[in-house]
Amino acid sequence: MKPIQKQIAENLKRIRKLRGYSYDQLAALTSVSKGMLSQIEKGESSPTVNTLWKIANGLQVSFSSLVEEAVPAVSVVRLDQKAAVTENDELFQVYPYFPFDSSKKFEIYFMELMPGCKHTSERHHGSVEEYILVCEGEITISIHDEDYSLKKGDSMRFQANQSHTYANHIDKTTSCYLLIYYP
Length: 183
Description:
alpha+beta, 10 strands
């Protein structure tokens, strides 16, 4: 398994070249500087989750298409073998489990929010839906200044076309599965 930084570099370069974009064009589409884009492509920078979302949204590709290798016909995913994409001093960790597949139109992640974590996700373009299934702990999801509190076993679906915040206000790690559906 390749280091995630190397996989992101290869995927971004492949997608950019496939579409014939210069760094200037990609920077205009993504609101990420061309210097940062170049550093990411060279594997010299480890982008944040929000930066990856900006790139994915600008390119109109799934988040997982930037972080994952090609998937074989049968896949077993083991958490201890996945590299997390982290943010907020590693209080927020997301593990890409199943990358986007255009025939299925969804991708699946495993998320962990450490105590005190508050992570704001960029809005997704179009009619993208997010499904959250809480495995352990409690999570508060804020959308349009409204808070939704979920506990172990709870789930939620929402339109992800506006920014939304995930927060863990308890003293233990919260874990969730996140399914993103692209209708």
